[in-house]
Structures are given as C-alpha cells and as structure tokens.
Design a protein that fits this description.
Strand 2 and strand 3 form a beta hairpin. Helices cover 53% and strands 10% of the residues. Strands 13-14-20-16-17 form a five-stranded antiparallel beta sheet, with no helix packed on it. A four-stranded antiparallel beta sheet has the order 10-15-19-18, with no helix packed on it. Helix 5 packs across helix 6 and helix 27 runs antiparallel to helix 28. The protein is globular and about 100 Å long. It is of the alpha+beta class and 832 residues long. The protein folds into four domains: 199 residues, no CATH class; 160 residues, no CATH class; 275 residues, no CATH class; 120 residues, no CATH class. The two termini are 29 Å apart. The protein contains 31 helices and 20 strands.
Length: 832
C-alpha cells in the first residue's frame, strides 16, 4: 500500500478550509445566535405546528395533519424518515455546520468534486467552486427559506461527477459515488431540482452515446450504463419511503389531473398551465445572468439619497423620504414578484463565451445543449410552443411550477464550461495566437453588448413593468423611479464591463508570460469573489437575520385566537377571512384550519374552495359590509353549505375582535336520510350548490356498489359522537336501531386511511366531494379511522435495507481505494 503524503493531501485541505471560511463569513450571523427570517420558514412553523407538538408529546411520527385544508398527509410537511441512514453522511459532508449554513458549504464542495473529476487541476477547481457556489440565486433561496431546494442544488454537481467517472471506466468507484450522491440528492427532497438534474443527465447520456457510436466502444457503454442503472436503483431504494409517499400523494394533489372539465384549455395531466408559467423569465430578462439589475433586481429594494426618487420626494416635502426609498418597487419584469435575479457572474460569462470556441468534444455539446434548454424553458409563457410540448409530452414536467427555476441548470453548466475553458487556456494545450483571437472576439461581444445598453437603454426599454399599476404612485414619482431604474441598469453594465476587462487583461498578461499561473488564479479568484459576493449581498445580507426567538415563536395569538383556544369542547375548524385561503399558515399555527399553506394541497379540496368556498366567502363578506344583526348573520351562515359540512365552528373576521360563532356547523359526524347519486365530478361539485348536507349526501356513482340495497332508516334517536381525536386516529361511538348512513367531517384520502367497526375493517367511500361516508349497521358500535399508509411503513423497511447496502459498499470501496493509495484524479500534463 502506498503512503499518503501531506503534499498529496494539503491542496484538498486548503480547499475545504477556504470553502468553510467563506461559508462561515457569509453566514456569520448564525454563529451570533441569529436565524434567517424567511417567509417560507415562518409558514413552515405554522403548518408543521400540530405535527411537531404531537411528535414531542408522544414520541410517535404523525403522518397526517388536520391543521390545514381540512386535513392532508404530513409527508411533504414535516415527516421524519429515520430509516434513510444517508442523513448521517449528509451531516458529515456539511462539516456539521448549523442548518442552513452547511448547505452553502455543499455548494462549494460539490462543484469542486465535479471539476476534479473533469480533470481540472486542484487550484483552478477551487476558483471554479467559488464561481458556482456564489451564484446569486443560491443565496436568494436561502433568504426565502427554500432550504430543501438549496440542499438539492448542493448535490447536483457531485451526482454528475459520479456519472462521468463511471463513463471514464471507473465502474466500481463511479457507480458507488453515483449511488451515494444520488441518494443524498433525493434525500434533500426537492424533486423539482432532481428532475432538472435528470434533464442534464439526459444530455450527458446522449453525448456518451454519440461518443460510443464514433469510437465503437459498445461494451464499455453497456457496462457503464448497467452500473449507473444499478446505482440509480440503489439510490431510489435508499429513499423508498420518501419517494413512495410523495408519489402516492401526488396522484391526489393539485399536481395531478383534475376530474373536472370546466377549464380544459388550461389543464394538463398535472398542474394547470397558468399556474406552471406564472413565474416565467422574460426573454430579455435572461440578460440578468450578466447584468443583475437589468430589470431592477428585487421587487422591493432600496435606493440611495443620490437617487432621483429621493430628490423629488424631498423637493415635494414628502415626510419619511428616507424610509420610503428603502422600500421601493424596483423590479419591473414580467414575474409577479421576485427576491432577486439569477446572476451567473460577469467573469464567468466571459469565460463561458470563450469556452464555446476552445472546449472540444462531447462534453461541450451536452453542456451547451443543457444551458440552452434551461434558458428556453425558463421563458415559459413567453415561448409557449416549447412549453406546451414539455407540458403535454415530457413525463412529469407538468408536475412542477415556477418554470424560471430551470435556470438552476444554466447556473451549473455556465461555470462548468467556463472553467473547462480556463483549464484549457492555462494548460498550454492551445496555440497562443489563436487563443488571443478568441479572447478578443469574446471580449468584443460582451463589450459591444455593454456599449449598446449604455448608449441605447432608454430607447430599448420602457423601465415600466406590468406590476407598477398596483402601487398607485403619482406620475411624477413614477417618472423618477423609471429614471432610477435606468440608472441602476447602466451602473451594472459599467460594473460588468470593468470585471470583464480586468479578466481579459489578466489572461493577456498570462499568455504574454508576464504573470504566472498562481498569480492568475489568485487574481481571478479574488475578482470573482468581489463580483459575486457584492451582488449577493444586495439580496441576502445581515438584514435577513433575526433573533432565534422571533423565528421559534413567529406568531402571536390575537384576541380572536385566544377566544377560540378557550373552547375545549371538541374538535372543530376555523376559517380566517382576513387571510388568503392558501396563505394562512398563521391560522394553522393555532387552530384546525380550512385554509393553509402548501404547494401540494389535495386537489379536490382546492377545487371545493375554487367552486364553493370562495363564493361563500364573497357572500359572507357582503353580509358583513352591511353591518348585519344576529338574525341576518345566522341566515347567511345557514346557506354556507361547504363551510358547515367542514364543521367550521368559528369565523375570524377581525383579529382584534371575538370571532363569529357559527351555530350551523354540522359537527364531526352525522347521519343523513337521502342519497344523491351523480355521474361525474362536474355534477358532484355542481349539486353542492343547492343541497342540505345535514340531510343529504352526494355520492359519485363510482361508489354505487357500497350502497347497493341500502335504504337510510328513520331513527330520530340515532347518534354518532367523536370520542378520540389524534392526527392519524379517530374513534366514534354510534347508536341506532336501524342501519344508518354516516358522513364524517374528515377529508377523504384512500391511501392509508382504514376504517374499522368493532375492530373489524369496514368499507367506506368518498362523500360530498371531499368527505368520508359509511353505512353504519344498527346497534351500538365503536367506529375507528386509522391512518396506516403502507407506503410509509413498508417504504421505511426498504429504505433501511437500501441504506445498509449502500454503507457496506462505501466501506468496501473505501478500503480498496485506500489499499491502492490516495484516491486521485489524473490531471492532464502540459503538452499532452
């Protein structure tokens, strides 16, 4: 066995040290006891409160929550999957840094590994890791609380590294590393990012197929592909419980096809087209990859006292001018709102353009193809032929929203080609005369674009956006704001031009022999750091951090909340009219909410809101506006069919007032006397407009067999009462002299909820579009609903087995590699 010397190891230790130091420096407020004040994390606290409380109180994992949308699976909210043992490896790779600080370190480490596998030398790979990790979007999402997205992005590059290593003929090492990093990628649990990674893999695979055909290395391709398929199967096996439960829920969520046919033009087999493309990047907005403030930066930003807006505010004696200029609507692009642009870096773009001409072979073409597709897909509704094709024909694409997110592909591929180009430039493999010509051309392209924007920006752009009208600003102020937006663009163009010129000059000095490679790399690293760091600080800085106590207790109970919390008389739901239906995580923090906050809510509940609850809300708001008395309010509430069948006992109309008590809420369960059988979902939702849920149940003909031969009996003494209520367990006591048809005010979800009468499993069915119905035999009975999803429990067993297999393989391969000597990647030598 060869000895591993310090000389071999220290470059990697230096790399880790640099990455850790930069990570800690940027995220230093975390080490001062602060946390990121992110909207999504605040909402997460609200929607996961019931789950966390139950877990802490019982030590059991709740797989269902009643705190939002009437009830839904907890898998995609806060469920733990302890059998996925790679979670411990994940913590090691993050150096044990506090969450989400370790995610930033993963950005650096993952891309560093990929460049090493692609035979970029160690020192150049360190600089390349800076360029990738400091992409603006990767920090903006941390500020928004999109931690799972950041986590998944961190493992994109090392997954590609494992695949490339396998195709290089390192079957065992490459296969095991692919299995490991793909397991971690899936474990990060942002399927949309993993899907985009797979799009990159498709182009990489196509490039390998072309190489195989040209070189006729079919046996090698079959071996490598077989190893990678087995690695993927193992990675999926490790994450079976997560993937199985997510896939199961997806079939019933808004990411599945609707059964309604009212709006077919907008429908796909997944999300509606309008929902998918709401966040579409504008075509010219793509230039923010180079000029971050081209479209104003973030939706709400700050201007200085030297701005025209500040000058005109003070000239007009507007009070609080200094506060106003800190909260201005600067973004004027096509997206509804944004926290900041996708900025890849001026230096990186310059190297990328150069790479288009000097990087050779299949690697360039799969990188370029993936980059181009990323940009075109991000345009969304601005390039509907391609968007329609993907939504209608490419598997799973219509399950994901916010098409602008595809730019994460470009954020990986652009620096990848850039630093493959830099490696080729500094390796001495190219004719210097030709290289200078290419550098001149690249510089001329970007400098020319910059000059056009500097000279003609006022003619090319209006500096007004579709969202400006919502702010109601006077014309004189809007004119000043447009001028400041134009000034911001010009300043960023000048800034980019300076960084490009400095990079161009450094490379010329290097090619002329006036500076050495170490000086070049240190200077480029410093320039990239200054460029990317300062832009990132515009959109994610110390202002985003607050005391941890403010995060751990994000909501304060209002007068209405406190009054409702006094009611311990049973289980019921709450409707908060002061919050949007799908943005009411705050209400879920305190109560069983008919609204909530989640991107994968159950589709039928969303449709119940769209077609019934939303109309009831309008009617109720209209009644409130007329300052009604008790009688008129009660009359209005009696007409709220959907609200009443959801057992909505309290309605919050003013947080600072006591809530409205709804005497018409139907309770946890009740017996009905009539059945209305309907043929399809359209009729099902339409019949709900005018029916009495206390007396009649609407049932889809799909469940007709469950009601064959049944006639509701007449028994005025019949009763059914909820006796035990837990997130995933319900128990009722029923008593009647005849068979009865019961409706339970619980959301119907067939994958896991089992019903039992006196301990024997018993059939039930969907009722009233979203609820549960059951024929209850005469007599006294205990009725139980238990959430026992096979996908979770069997999935956890499979995940444990997969995890153990992967860990054993890692240990075996690690032992073999140590015996052979230090794991290293060959770097092409000068002249080879």
């Amino acid at each position: 066995m060869k000895n591993i010397t310090f000389r071999q190891v220290y470059p990697y230790l230096i790399a880790i040290g640099i990455f850790a130091a930069l990570t800690i420096a940027y995220m230093f407020p975390v080490f001062e006891g602060k946390a990121i004040q992110a909207t999504d994390m605040v909402n997460f606290r609200g929607m996961s409160k019931e789950i966390v409380d139950y877990r802490e109180a019982t030590g059991k994992e709740p797989l269902w929550t009643n705190a939002m949308f009437g009830g839904m699976p907890a898998y995609l909210i806060s469920t733990k999957f302890p059998a996925i043992l790679v979670s411990h490896i994940d913590r090691i790779l993050q150096l044990g840094l506090p969450h989400p600080v370790g995610l930033v370190f993963l950005y650096f480490l993952g891309f560093f590994i990929l460049l090493l596998i692609l035979r970029v030398d160690k020192w150049t790979s360190i600089v390349g890791a800076l360029a990738f990790a400091l992409s603006s979007y990767f920090f903006i999402i941390l500020g928004a609380g999109h931690n799972s997205k950041a986590h998944a992005i961190g493992y994109m590059a090392p997954v590609l590294a494992g695949i490339i290593l396998t195709f290089r003929g390192k079957y065992i090492l490459g296969g095991v590393l692919t299995a490991l990093f793909l397991s971690l990628e899936i474990y990060a649990y942002h399927i949309q990012i993993t899907y985009y990674l797979m799009l990159i893999v498709v182009f990489l695979a196509l490039a390998e197929i072309v190489r195989t055909v040209r070189e006729k290395t079919y046996l090698h391709f079959v071996k490598a592909s077989s190893v990678l398929i087995m690695a993927a199967i193992l990675a999926v096996g490790v994450n079976t419980s997560r993937l199985w439960t997510a896939m199961e829920q997806s079939k019933y969520s808004i990411r599945s096809k609707s059964e309604l046919s009212f709006n077919k033009a907008d429908q796909t087999s997944g999300l509606d087209k309008s929902y998918v493309t709401a966040w579409s990047y504008g075509r010219t907005e793509t230039l923010t990859l180079l000029f971050p403030n081209l479209y104003g930066g973030s939706s709400t930003g700050s201007l200085g006292e030297n701005s025209e807006t500040y000058r005109i505010l003070t000239d007009n004696n507007i009070p609080n001018s200094q506060q106003i200029i800190r909260q201005l609507p600067l973004y004027w692009g096509d997206q509804p709102f944004t926290s900041g642009p996708v900025y890849a870096g001026a230096i990186v773009l310059f190297l990328f353009i150069t790479g288009l001409f000097i990087v050779k072979g299949p690697v360039k073409w799969w990188i370029v193809a993936a980059t181009l597709l990323s940009i075109l897909l991000a345009w969304g509704r601005h390039f509907m032929p391609l968007t329609d094709f993907f939504l209608e024909h490419v598997p799973l694409y219509n399950k994901f929203r916010a098409v602008s997110m595809t730019l994460v592909i470009a954020e990986l591929t652009i620096p990848l080609l850039a630093f493959l180009a830099l490696q080729r430039m500094i390796s001495g493999q190219m004719d210097k005369v030709r290289l200078r010509k290419i550098l001149n051309f690249s510089f001329a392209c970007l400098a020319g674009l910059s000059l056009i924007l500097l000279l003609f920006a006022g003619s090319l752009f209006s500096f007004s956006g579709p969202g400006d009208s919502q702010y109601g600003l006077p014309d004189w102020l809007m004119d000043a704001l447009r001028n400041d937006r134009q000034r911001m663009l010009r300043m960023d163009v000048l800034r980019a031009l300076v960084f490009i010129a400095l990079t161009f000059g450094l490379l010329w000095f290097f090619l002329s022999g006036k500076i050495k490679k170490p000086v070049l790399l240190m200077a480029l690293g410093l320039l990239i750091l200054v460029d990317m760091w300062t832009v990132n600080k515009r959109y994610f800085n110390s202002d985003h951090f607050v005391r941890k106590a403010a995060i751990e207790k994000p909501f304060q109970a209002t007068t209405a909340d406190l009054k409702i919390l006094e009611d311990q008389s049973g289980q019921f739901r709450v409707w908060n009219l002061t919050e949007d239906f799908d943005k009411s995580a705050r209400t879920s923090f305190f109560h069983k909410n008919i609204g909530g906050y989640h991107a994968a809510k159950l589709r039928r509940f969303q449709e119940l809101y769209d077609y019934r609850i939303a109309k009831e809300r309008e009617q109720l708001v209209e009644v409130f506006s007329a300052q009604p008395d008790f009688t008129s309010l009660n009359t209005a509430l009696n007409k709220m069919k959907a609200i009443n069948m959801l057992n909505t006992r309290y309605i919050i109309y003013n947080p600072d007032s006591e809530p409205l008590v709804n005497p018409n809420a139907l309770g946890n369960a009740w017996f009905v006397r009539q059945v209305t059988m309907v043929d399809d979902a359209d009729e099902e939702i339409q019949r709900m407009e005018d029916f009495d849920p206390a007396q009649t149940v609407i049932v889809n003909r799909t469940y007709a067999e469950r009601l064959n031969g049944f006639t509701p009996g007449s028994d005025t003494s019949a009763a059914i009462l909820l006796t035990t209520h837990k997130p995933d367990y319900l128990s009722y006591q029923s008593q009647s002299t005849t068979d009865q048809l019961a409706v339970f005010s619980e959301v119907y979800y067939p994958k896991g909820w089992n019903a039992y009468i006196n301990g024997t499993e018993y059939p039930y069915f969907r009722a009233d579009y979203v609820l549960r119905g059951m024929i209850v035999p005469a007599g006294e009975h205990t009725i139980e609903f238990m959430f026992e999803p096979r996908a979770y429990y069997l999935g956890e067993t499979i995940s444990l087995i997969g995890s153990l297999v992967l860990i054993l393989l890692l240990l075996a391969v690690g032992y073999l590699e140590i015996r052979k000597g230090m794991i290293r990647v060959d770097v092409p030598k000068k002249g080879k």
